[in-house]
Amino acid sequence: MIQQELGIKKIDVLKIDTEGAEVSIVEGLRNLLPNTKIVMAEYHTESDRKKIEEMLTEFLLYSAEVQELRGVGTVKYANLKFFNETG
């Protein structure tokens, strides 16, 4: 994994905007998610939005925006582990 090669142990903000490949990228980064504070992801279909949400069960959705004409949206999640530490 590239994060191991680079010595990445935690991520403050992970922004994913890859024109439709967001679901597979989140899947590929699952082992990094427990040590990620914020995940921001674009989605292109409602199905993709649901898949992203299913993978982020330890996160709290704090913002969601949809561009109705294009059907593209953005979701923002905070990791509950970090949220609870500061609250």
TrEMBL record:
Pfam families: Methyltransf_21. Residues 4-57 form the Methyltransferase FkbM domain. Keywords: Methyltransferase, Transferase. One of its GO terms (molecular function) is methyltransferase activity. SUPFAM superfamilies: S-adenosyl-L-methionine-dependent methyltransferases. InterPro entries: FkbM_mtfrase (IPR006342), SAM-dependent_MTases_sf (IPR029063). One of its GO terms (biological process) is methylation. This is Methyltransferase, FkbM family.
